[in-house]
Amino acid sequence: MRLHTRVSPLLLAGLLAGCATTQPPAAQHAAEPAPGGVAAAAVSQPWTPPPQPTASLAARGERVASAAGATAVPVPAPAPAPAPARAASPQATHAGAGIPLGAPERAALDPLPDREEAYAQEVARKFDLPLPAVEAALANARYNATVVRLMTPSSAPPGVRKRSWPAYRARFVEPIRIRHGLAFWQENARDLAEAERRYGVPASVIVAIIGVETVYGRNMGNFRVLDALYTLSFSYPGTGERDRSEYFRGELAEFLAATIRDGIAPEAPLGSYAGAMGMSQFMPSSIRDFGVSTGGRGMPDLANNPRDAVHSVANYLAAHGWRAGQPVFAPVRMPANASALVDGGLEPRRAWAQLQRDGVQDARPAMAGLVSGGLGDDGTQSWQRSPLGVVNLPNDGAGTVEYRLGTPNFFAITHYNRSYFYASAVADLAAELERRRSSL
User: Fold this and answer.
1) Cα dihedral sign for 184, 409, 213, 19?
2) How far is CA 351 from the centre of its chain?
3) CA–CA separation, 203 and 314 (whole Å)
4) Would you call 21 helix, strand, or coil by DSSP?
5) Pick from 294, 276, 303, 320: nearest CA to 415
6) SS3 (DSSP) at 151
7) Average pLDDT score over residue span 60-69
8) CA-CA distance, 410 to 391, in Å (whole number)?
9) Which of 10, 159, 188, 438 has its CA 20 to 30 Å from the CA of residue 132?
10) CA 41 to chain centre
11) Cα 180 to Cα 12: distance, rounded to the nearest angstrom
12) What is the DSSP letter of 89?
């Protein structure tokens, strides 16, 4: 949706009414995962935000943030302990379309607390929005205790947390996602092929991400996005870990700008507990930056239009370093000392020549199908000229670790979710879908 273009309220509500209701996959390596979603842009016409009087409000970082950086709205940091004095609203079950702004009951609401009023004024100024509309939206936002609970990390010390790659993998490479994934691929084959040609991302990977995120739109969420973003902006759980409230205030600002400009009541859209939306689970800033409106008529409909979702996922991966023709995992044999080659980072840093000196061996072609995840390469082994990274997938209960060699494409997937387990599960589901489809 071009924010300066009038768009049908039904279209916007359809886009914003989605997202996973369950907590996203937990991180299984040193870098923690983000709880939210990614973003959106345009196939025929890239979607761009309107000119802003000052810098963007989106503060992005990892997947719950999108992968670019920006400036957040400067409001005082929230107190970590007490929640706002507002009652939690009942969970919405349907995103109503075309609910007018400024509903009558808003007039009777008390003035906003000073901290929220300062935020409202800053959002209205930076996005050139009517201040009363921003104030009304915040007045209707409600603290949601479930959001806080789901965002609170495990109390177990990192060394005590048990990680199991086989158990994690089994949650996603499983019959339901495989069956529905094959059907989704069949139903959207033309759009998937078009996205693969345009962005260089294999159809199997696009299908796998949508399957892992929302089971092909079957689990897009029933939290009010306004409540989720409001809660995490002003009552981020005080756990002693990194405070992300500044990031969520940026996402809330993007969300308010999108809904208010298009005449949609901000309390109507539904999404995940972190404010992610649609089949692809994009956060508001990612919708702005990477979403694709294949009809060229403004904001993409990521909840109801598979074509928009398919192109948006491919666009996101391409923008985060996907290299056409390369596998996700390089077909290699790892040495006995593979643990010493793991740095736990989210960027590939090792050269193939150095890895060879460290004992990594090219296993092509005998193990290519297995180790590359069935995603293949371009026949030139171009991955050997790319930066690489050793991936560790532990099973703490058994005291074992599986090691793989990730290419830039593996690390492109980690921008979607900061987890080796997540990116590996996407690759393995893609491989299984590709294998099953080729045998049909």
Assistant:
1) negative
2) 29
3) 9
4) coil
5) 320
6) helix
7) 30
8) 9
9) 10
10) 14
11) 26
12) P
Q: What is the distance between the alpha carbons of residues 72 and 69, in angstroms, rounded to a whole number?
A: 10
Helix (H, G, I), strand (E, B) or coil at 292: strand
pLDDT score, position 242 = 79
How far from 125 is each of 24, 101, 247, 330, CA to CA, in Å? 34, 19, 19, 49
Q: Tell me the Cα Rg of the chain.
A: 22
Tokens of 56: 């963007």
Provide the 10 A C-beta neighbour count for residue 103: 12
Q: Which of 122, 194, 213, 251 is catalytic?
A: 213
Q: How confident is the model at residue 440 (pLDDT cuts 50, 70, 90)?
A: confident
Query: Residue 308 carries which DSSP code?
Result: H
Q: Would you list the DSSP string of 102-123?
A: S-GGGGGSPPPPHHHHHHHHHH
**Is 213 a catalytic site residue?**
yes
CA 284/CA 291 separation, integer angstroms: 10
Q: 402 has which bridge partners?
A: 393
196 membership: H or E segment, kind and range: helix 189-199
CA separation for the pair 54, 57 (Å, rounded): 9
Q: Determine the 3-state secondary structure of 160 from DSSP.
A: coil
7: pLDDT strictly greater than 80: no
Rounded to 10 degrees, the C-alpha dihedral 149/95/276/231 comes to: -40
Is the confidence at residue 370, as pLDDT, over 60? no
Strand pairing partners for 277?
282
As beta bridge partners, residue 362 has 332
Residue with tokens 């150095």: 354
> What is the pLDDT, as a whole number, of residue 405?
96
Place of tokens 């509903």: 103
Tokens (6 digits) for 177: 């996602």
Q: What is the pLDDT of residue 325?
A: 87
pLDDT surpasses 90 at 201: yes
Q: Are strands 361-362 and 270-271 parallel, antiparallel or unpaired?
A: unpaired
* pLDDT in the model for residue 363: 85
Going by C-beta distance under 8 Å and a sequence separation of 6 or more, which residues neighbour residue 295?
Answer: 44, 305, 308
Q: Are strands 282-283 and 389-395 parallel, antiparallel or unpaired?
A: unpaired
Span 226-251, pLDDT tens digits: 999 999 999 998 766 778 999 999 99
- Tokens representing residue 40 in the block: 């959106």
The predicted structure's pLDDT at residue 240 = 66
396 Cβ partners below 8 Å, 6+ apart?
A: 162, 163, 164
Looking at the chain, the whole-number percentage of residues with pLDDT higher than 90 is: 61
Question: Which distant-in-sequence residues (6+ apart) come within 8 Å of 268 by Cβ?
Answer: 13, 16, 17, 92, 95, 96, 97, 99, 259
pTM of the model: 0.77
